[in-house]
């Protein structure tokens, strides 16, 4: 990616990462954005720094629900949060 990729795309991903991530919609969309950024930057997925950054960008009600929870991989975090968020949207859509 760094040799043949779009330098503008990499710079945008770096800026988004450094400014902080923020979930504005559904968790599925949030994790899609995160995975794209991680892929562009070549950052490891399952390290504490990445996991902490991802958790800090989640909506506050999701963070509150999972206080004290630790995940081993980003995929574990993603699966739990997406299922919780889908149920939350279903309950509160009216």
Number of domains: 1
Shape: globular
Structural class: mainly alpha
Number of strands: 0
The level of helicity is 55-70%
Report the uncertain regions: none
Mean pLDDT: 89
Order of helices and strands: HHHHH
* Sheet with the most strands, sense and barrel status: none
Characterization of this structure:
With 94 residues, the chain is mostly helical. The protein has one domain (7-92). The protein has five helices and no strands. It has helices spanning 7-19, 27-41, 48-57, 60-65, 74-92. It is globular and about 45 Å long.
How does the SSE layout of this entry go?
Blueprint: H1 7-19, H2 27-41, H3 48-57, H4 60-65, H5 74-92
Helix pairs in contact: 1-2
Characteristics of this structure?
mainly alpha, globular
Write a brief caption for the model.
The chain is mostly helical and 94 residues long. Helices cover 67% and strands 0% of the residues. It has one domain.
